[in-house]
Amino acid sequence: MPAAVLLIVVLSTTGFPLCAAAIDAVPEVFPLRPFNFDVSFNQRTFAPQARVIAVQAGLTALRYGVLEVRTVYQYYSHHTQTFTTDQHSLYVNPRWNNFIDLLDFPRDKPINRVIRHLLFGPLEDRAVPYVGALLGGTLPGRGADSPGYLYGGQVGVRFPVARGVSVDMGFQYSRFEIDFKSKSDLSEQWLFTIGIRL
């Protein structure tokens, strides 16, 4: 139940961020630092039910003000004496950057500044918090040779550390179809991701 509530909140907030976008924003195709590479530590309920490590790479295809759209590929491989599984995921990841700036009130002590100070301390002016949605597919999915669907949400923060380089950390929840040991089922997955954007 908490996972479903989190997913609904993330999806609803990513659907209505236009009021926070700058009026004079210009769409950017393949903007600065478009590539990202991450390692994810995750807990899943099926295929297999275990804590696993995966790698993922992504590309920011479009940015418009505080909105951006990324495409992410994730690969997971698990080989043991009893089974072997190689799993691939590809999904679209729209994000709303600096979403807490929606709380820029009251004028004398804005709520968003208080939240930034509590969460990020001396890095409050450099941090870029975000919420995002995930929508895509997995392989194997409904069968060993057929794809399955994937959906979910995420919340995280990005810190620019040098010109053209950022560190990105986030929590992500997803549900996806997966075929494992000739059985297809719906798996839930919680991830902590950390990586860089170039």
Number of strands: 9
- CATH level-3 fold name: Porin
Distance between the termini: 37 Å
Please, how many helices?
Answer: 2
What is the domain total for the residues? 1
CATH class category label: Mainly Beta
What is the rounded Rg? 18 Å
Describe the protein.
The chain is mainly β and 198 residues long. The chain has a single domain (2-197), classed as Porin (Beta Barrel), CATH 2.40.160. 12% of the residues lie in helices and 59% in strands. The chain has 2 helices and 9 strands, in the order H-E-E-E-E-E-H-E-E-E-E. The chain has helices at residues 2-15, 111-120, and strands at residues 28-29, 35-44, 51-64, 67-79, 84-97, 128-143, 146-162, 165-180, 183-197. It has an 8-stranded antiparallel beta barrel. A hairpin with a 2-residue loop joins strand 6 and strand 7 (146-162). The protein is elongated and about 60 Å long.
Short description, anyone?
With 198 residues, the protein is mainly beta.
Q: How does the SSE layout of this entry go?
A:
Blueprint lengths: L1 H14 L12 E2 L5 E10 L6 E14 L2 E13 L4 E14 L13 H10 L7 E16 L2 E17 L2 E16 L2 E15 L1
Antiparallel strand pairs: 1-3, 2-3, 2-9, 3-4, 4-5, 5-6, 6-7, 7-8, 8-9
Task: Supply database-style keywords.
mainly beta, eight-stranded antiparallel beta barrel, single chain, Porin, 9 strands, 198 residues, elongated
